UniProtKB/TrEMBL annotation:
Binding site for carbamoyl phosphate: R56, T57, R106, H136, Q139, G264, P265
Subunit structure: Heterododecamer (2C3:3R2) of six catalytic PyrB chains organized as two trimers (C3), and six regulatory PyrI chains organized as three dimers (R2).
Organism: Jiangella anatolica
Protein name per its UniProtKB record: Aspartate carbamoyltransferase
Family: Belongs to the aspartate/ornithine carbamoyltransferase superfamily. ATCase family.
Binding site for L-aspartate: K84, R169, R223
Reaction(s) catalysed by this chain's protein: carbamoyl phosphate + L-aspartate = N-carbamoyl-L-aspartate + phosphate + H(+)
Length: 312
C-alpha cells in the first residue's frame, strides 16, 4: 500500500482492490456488533486537520480511527492558531513534535495535502480528505465500494456522473478510480460546468442527460457548488434542474436495477428530487455508512505496519 493517499490516480488496480477488499473485511468484523472497536491501531495517533468546514468527512474519519482504537485529535482552523495567521508549515511542525502518526487533511487550496506529504516537515502518513477543486480520493473509494456491493466487480459497468464537474473534486477522483477498476464513465453537464482539458480524462462526456441514463448501471448526482462560483454558469436554478436534475421521470429512463448515488450534501429539488433521493434505488445513506468502513481500511493499511517498518 502507498504511504500517502493524495490522489485516486496514485492507486494501482491492486492497491484499489486491496482497499475495497479490506473495507469488506472491516464491515464484516463490525456490522451488527454491540462493540464495534478493533485493537489494530492502538497506540497510534491520527490528527484530523480540517481547514474547511466539514461534517460527514471529518466525523467519518474520526469514527474510523476510533473504531480501530487509535487516539484521535480533531484540529479545526477556526479557534486555533491558524485563525491567528499560523502557516501550514508551522502547523505541520507542531503536529510532528506531538508525534502524529497519520494526518487527515482537508484544505481549500488544491495541492495542500501534497505539499504537506512531500515537504519533509512531517513524517506522518497523509490522507487527502479533499483539497480545493482537485481531489477527494476516499470519497471515490467509498462510492466504488458501495457500487461493488450491489453490482459486483465494476469492470465493464457503465457509470454516469452528472452535474457540476468543474468544481467537483469528487468527480475527478471518481473518474480516475473507476477507470482503474475498468468501468466506463460518462460525465454529463452543461458545457460551462465541464473543466478545460476534460477530453484528456479517461471518460466520455455528454450534454444530454436523458440519452445517458438508458444504459447506466449507476448514476451519481453532484451538488451544484454555488459557493465556488463567481459567475453565472447557467441561466437559473429552475433551468438547471429542468435540464440536469434527476426526477422521477428521468429515473424511469434508467434500467430497473440501476443505483442512484450522491456524495452529499444534497440540494434537494435542484440536482435531485426528494422522491428520487428517498427511493428504493437510492444508496445515498448507505454511502455514509460505507465511508466509515473504507476509511477504516485506508487508515489500517497505511498505519498498522508503521512501527515494524521503522524498526526494520
Amino acid at each position: 500500500m502507498i504511504r500517502h493517499l493524495l490522489s485516486a490516480g496514485d492507486l494501482s488496480l491492486d492497491d484499489a482492490t486491496l482497499v475495497l477488499d479490506t473495507a469488506d473485511e472491516m464491515a464484516r468484523l463490525t456490522e451488527g456488533r454491540a462493540v464495534k472497536k478493533l485493537p489494530t491501531l492502538r497506540g497510534r495517533t491520527v490528527v484530523n486537520l480540517f481547514f474547511e468546514d466539514s461534517t460527514r468527512t471529518r466525523t467519518s474519519f474520526e469514527l474510523a480511527a476510533k473504531r480501530l482504537s487509535a487516539d484521535v485529535v480533531n484540529f479545526s482552523a477556526k479557534g486555533s492558531s491558524l485563525s491567528k495567521g499560523e502557516s501550514l508549515k508551522d502547523t505541520a511542525l507542531t503536529l510532528e513534535a506531538m508525534g502524529a502518526d497519520g494526518v487527515v487533511v482537508r484544505h481549500s487550496a488544491s495541492g495542500a495535502p501534497y505539499r504537506l506529504a512531500t515537504s519533509g516537515w512531517i513524517n506522518a502518513c497523509v490522507v487527502n480528505a479533499g483539497d480545493g477543486t482537485h481531489e477527494h480520493p476516499t470519497q471515490a473509494l467509498l462510492d466504488a465500494f458501495t457500487m461493488r456491493r450491489h453490482l459486483g466487480e465494476l469492470a465493464g459497468k457503465r457509470i454516469v456522473i452528472v452535474g457540476d464537474v468543474l468544481h467537483s473534486r469528487v468527480a475527478r477522483s471518481n473518474v480516475l478510480l473507476l477507470a482503474t477498476l475498468g468501468a466506463d464513465v460518462t460525465l454529463v453537464a452543461p458545457p460551462t460546468l465541464l473543466p478545460n482539458g476534460v477530453d484528456a480524462w479517461p471518460c466520455a462526456t455528454s450534454y444530454d442527460l436523458d440519452g445517458a441514463l438508458a444504459g447506466a448501471d449507476a448514476v451519481m448526482m453532484l451538488r451544484v457548488q454555488s459557493e465556488r462560483m463567481n459567475a453565472a454558469f447557467f441561466p437559473s436554478a429552475r433551468e438547471y434542474s429542468r435540464r440536469y436534475g434527476l426526477d422521477t421521470r428521468r429515473q424511469r429512463l434508467m434500467p430497473p436495477e440501476a443505483l442512484v448515488l450522491h456524495p452529499g450534501p444534497m440540494n434537494r429539488g435542484m440536482e435531485i428530487t426528494a422522491e428520487v433521493a428517498d427511493s428504493a434505488r437510492s444508496v445515498i445513506v448507505e454511502q455514509v455508512t460505507n465511508g466509515v468502513y473504507v476509511r477504516m481500511a485506508v487508515l489500517y493499511l497505511m498505519l498498522a505496519g508503521t512501527n515494524s517498518e521503522e524498526a526494520a
